Amino acid sequence: MYSQALNERVEGPRVVEDPEKLAAFQARIDAEERIEPNDWMPEAYRRTLIRQISQHAHSEVVGMLPEGNWITRAPSLRRKAALLAKVQDEGGHGLYLYAAAETLGVSREELYEQLLAGKAKYSSIFNYPTLTWADIGCIGWLVDGAAIMNQIPLCRTSYGPYARAMIRICKEESFHQRQGYEIMLALCRGTPEQKAMAQDALNRWWWPSLMMFGPPDSESQHTAESMRWKIKRFTNDELRQKFVDATVPQGHYLGLTFPDPDLRFDEATGHWRFGKIDWEEFKRVLAGHGPCNRERLAARREAHQEGAWVREAALAHAAKRRARERAHKIAAE
Amino acid sequence: MAEQPMPLWEVFIRSRTGLAHRHVGSVHAADAEMALQAARDTYTRRGEGLSIWVVPSAVITASDPQDKDALFEPTASKIYRHPSFYRIPEEVGHM
Known about the structure:
The complex is a heterodimer of chains A (333) and B (95). Chain A is mostly helical and 333 residues long. Chain A has helices spanning 19-30, 43-62, 64-68, 77-102, 108-116, 133-154, 160-188, 192-211, 223-228, 236-253, 279-289, 293-306, 308-332, and strands at 264-266, 271-273. The relative contact order of chain B is 0.18. The mean pLDDT of chain B is 90.
């Protein structure tokens, strides 16, 4: 999901690969061998991974913002502690992922620069506002639910450092979804106003959550290559269907309805069929014109700039200590 | 002015006593002390460890994957390094 822009063309000079090396590489992938940082890999594989992993990392980091909005207003200490832990996890997930991307020969500074300059993408979902406390419930239940659906197959992705980062992330992510659903449950069992708040949040988050899986397979240009290289193991539409099938009964258990008049259970296939997704909205949000795109980037830029003196001071302090230690050593000799 | 890059550190964690430290990932930090702090926050939020090592990535010397055959293939032919190479009569018992 965090790799929505995977469907765009990878920029960079065209590299003509040695067919023999390419065949040997594909054979390793087909044999389910993991590719490790210093192994030979086609340039397009490296670029696709850098883009996908960095987008994923940016999504984790930007994803802290909509939820951070509610930390000071959580309704109880229990909810506040859980939300803080969740947001901290997301910061950690961003760091695992930047570290995995760096093994491909790109620096975290460069990647971060791309995000702050507005050149790199992150998941469209984080450009929607969190208007009520129920939105925090919906983010955990739906957004993290969709993330898990997408991330579990990534634990077996062909690039070793990415797969290992995903294993750690998936282990931590399941609490995120459960805490979100628990918030929804509490609201739905509460007063009529609380239940209405939960319904309103579901109405706003449902379609953007379905968009998280990216464009339909028919429009996804690079799915085939990513599947052949086992970066991706399921297509966007397959994962979206899995998510809908898992989530609709959970919503019904809450006593909520979905904002889709075409939603119906197909007895023959055992799948929940859903209506048409507004792909124009998706494109708009991804292109920078969602409700919160500017606000999110401005917040990241501010955090980065405000922290610059801390990074600078830490490096200067480390350099001073090293110099002092050297001087002591020379004096002692 | 372009920012100075933060040094990279490799992180190793001992999950239980009796086990070796194991590589878990990396962090960026200005010095060793801050690297330890960052490693704690990044890799041990759920009781994953009892001890952390941080090592500047720049000081690690790694073998080249292209030398894999030259380095490791010779051991494949030395089957006499394994106990199953030697025939001992059953009556002798476990050895």
